Amino acid sequence: xxxxxxxxxxxxxxxxxxxxxxxxxxxAGVAVLLSLRSNLTEQAGRxxxxxxxxxxxxxxxxxxxxxAYAKLELPDEEDHPVQVTDEDGRLLxxxxxxxxxxxxxxxxxxxxxxxxxxxxxxxxxxxxxxxxDDGAHDDGAHDDGAHDDDGPAVGEIGDTTSxxxxxxxxxxxxxxYRFATIEATDRAGRTVLVHAGASLADRxxxxxGTAAAMLAGLxxxxxxVGGVTWLMTRRALxxxxxxxxxxxAITASQDLSRRVPEPATxxxxxxxxxxxxxxxxxxxxxxxxxxxxxxxxxxxxxxPIASLRTQLEVGEAHxxxxxxPGAVADTVRLQRLAADLLLLARLxxxxxxxxxxxxxxxxxxxxxxxxxTGDRFPVVLDVRPGAEVAGSRGQxxxxxxxxxxxxxxxxxxxxxxxxxxxxxxxxxxxxxDGPGVPDAERERIFERFVRLDDARSRDEGxxxxxxxxxxxxxxxxxxxxxxxxAECGGALFELRLPPADGAEAPDGP
Length: 509
Fold this sequence. Notes:
Layout lengths: L1 H5 L2 H54 L19 E5 L4 E4 L3 E5 L59 E9 L2 E13 L5 E9 L1 H53 L14 H50 L6 H25 L9 E3 H10 L8 E5 L4 E3 L2 H18 L4 E8 L2 E8 L20 H4 L9 H11 L3 E6 L5 E7 L12
Parallel strand pairs: 8-10
Antiparallel strand pairs: 1-2, 1-6, 3-4, 4-5, 5-6, 7-9, 10-11, 11-13, 12-13
Helix pairs in contact: 2-3, 4-5, 5-9, 7-9
């Protein structure tokens, strides 16, 4: 049951939509977190820049010549740890609670020499002069060449601020900071570097809180997406399930008159339902046609078989009363009917003639007419040259014979046939001077086992398969067979076939 459920279209669509949304949400969440982290880092950088500029302005404007840097008013060391160094990296002043620092390029946090002895070595508390903190600056964060060679003018601060990231320990608490570095020149002409930091704790907490909120809401959102997709897919596929159930019922009951429900929408499901109903209608017509064919064939076969049996039984009991010509006629009729049924079966199976065999349709007409010695009326034949076609000679001979038989059966005194090349077709015309075919019956006479009332009244009438066979053979050869009205008022059958060479010739007279 589980395998069947996950193998359904609804399950696959729901899982697919959930997976796509999950990937999209993860990508969007990462982008949001990176953007948030970048914005908070920039915000901390601006805060550090303001703190550094306040100290730099104090040095440039308020500190007198040879000032004691230890008397500078520095910001709160917990929020903004500060270092002031000379151009050689010697520490001049630092925040009181600063215990350790990295990221500014100067590790010293305690002044070991007075500013007056600036020419002497001003070491740091660990004895490392000019100690550079390798790798303390973040990639691309520090602006190389930010300081001019000459530095700012006396009593001014630099225009450029460089940034770096690092950490600092203030009063025993270690945290990450964003540092801003700016140059300042006091009134004595001495250029110093002011390093001021801004805590990144807000960045860390904000990013962590946002990530936690996203991760907490992601499963809920994915459940909502999966549930909505499941319901929408179920609603969309409900007509398909109805079609499936109805098709299963039709298969079980074999009732081809039933139809599947068609949704009122104009989507693919509605088109599927309409196509299914059209297929069912065509199948019902085909099956009904086959049933009628079998019933009519049984009926047509019953008469000659019953007549032949009766004659043979009479002949067995009374040899002198045996009607041999009648028995032969019934046998011939039975043989022709069996041959017609066999040909129709092959045509229904989709048999198509080979286009490799070529012959002249006019010569075939001459041969067929010359063999018809028992016709009621002689056939007047008009054949023009250039009537070569491709296909089955035997099947086209059967078509011509059926058309001539039909004309002889209904003609009042004359039957004509002609073969000519007309444009891109070879045309065979058979006409008679009989009553003709009414307009309403001109398509029905090509159905199987269909005979008009006057034809059924004749004892010599056929089984109603000749014209049906003729049209099927014509269509298998890529042609058409139609019926119209002759000039003399009778029926005119016109067979049009593609020529063997495929070329187009001018219409004959």
